């Protein structure tokens, strides 16, 4: 189960819950011992010899050698392990459940503005679900199976959390903001939808900004702008805006539906997945969502 919440401080967070067929002491060892963390945590973890609040943690990605730091905020064996990773917060809670345990794993996204941080929730949950699958396999004495269907898994949570939907700003502008994970920005740039015949390119700065006019009845009706942002800690995201004049506001559901399909295809393409064009029924379903 994945639960998306907002903290009292206004930060987005996700909590994953698991029921494990192992006693709390065994689970606690698996989530606090560097040797056991190596079986499931995404980075190698170095802890103080005697972990306690205020202690420093080092995280190392073994494939690249990149390191980052964190701090222990809570350490209450065998129940609570809470720490920061860069500026994000991780809280692991273990409690008895009959002869087994319940595990609650919470990730609070503290980087960037809350609305931007929220965009990565689908990606983060997908990764943590795979990590906790590996944890459960290690506890059971099984060899974990790494998933290959990352795109489909991320789409599941993106849809569940409502992160794929566009919005209409107060001035009638359409806006979509989507997390693209970690593709090369040059690949994203090549996949951006191009202007239709007869439209004018207003700005083109590879691989960051592409803006052009969009046409209605063969005449310029507004501006479409794609902006690709690469963050060294949070990956790549794209923002699409499209201005819509007041006299064409009745077309907003159709315009939102068309851009929604384009964003889904762009996201899939960065995973090497080519989507089939939406059916008339699918378009009608999404249009109805934007009409309500």
TrEMBL record:
InterPro entries given in the database record: ASHA1/2-like_C (IPR013538), START-like_dom_sf (IPR023393)
Domain Activator of Hsp90 ATPase homologue 1/2-like C-terminal: 22-139
Family according to the record: Belongs to the AHA1 family.
The protein's name: Uncharacterized protein YndB with AHSA1/START domain
Annotated source species: Amycolatopsis echigonensis
């Amino acid at each position: 189960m994945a639960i998306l919440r907002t903290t009292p401080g206004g930060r987005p967070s996700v909590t994953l819950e698991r029921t494990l067929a192992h006693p709390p002491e065994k689970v606690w060892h698996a989530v606090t011992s560097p040797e056991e963390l190596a079986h499931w945590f995404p980075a190698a973890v170095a802890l103080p010899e005697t972990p306690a609040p205020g202690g420093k943690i080092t995280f190392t990605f073994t494939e690249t050698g990149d390191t980052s730091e964190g701090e222990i905020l809570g350490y209450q064996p065998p129940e609570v392990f809470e720490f920061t990773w860069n500026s994000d917060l991780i809280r692991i809670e273990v409690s008895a459940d009959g002869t087994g345990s319940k595990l609650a794993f919470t990730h609070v996204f503290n980087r960037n503005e809350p609305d931007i941080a929220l965009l990565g929730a689908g990606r983060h949950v997908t990764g943590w679900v795979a990590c906790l699958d590996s944890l459960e396999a290690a506890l059971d004495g099984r060899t974990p199976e790494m998933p290959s269907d990352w795109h489909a898994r991320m789409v599941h949570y993106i849809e569940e959390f409502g992160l794929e939907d566009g919005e209409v700003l107060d001035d009638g502008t359409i806006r979509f903001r989507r997390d693209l994970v970690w593709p090369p920005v040059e690949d994203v740039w090549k996949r951006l939808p191009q202007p239709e015949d007869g439209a004018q390119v207003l700005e083109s700065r590879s691989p960051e900004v592409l803006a052009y006019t969009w046409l209605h009845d063969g005449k310029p009706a507004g501006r479409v702008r794609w902006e690709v942002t690469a963050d060294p800690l949070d990956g790549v995201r794209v923002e699409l805006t499209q201005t819509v004049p007041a006299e064409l506001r009745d077309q907003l559901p159709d315009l939102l539906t068309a851009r929604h399909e384009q964003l889904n295809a762009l996201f899939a393409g960065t995973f090497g997945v080519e989507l089939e064009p939406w059916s008339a029924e699918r378009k009608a379903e999404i249009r109805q969502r934007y009409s309500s």
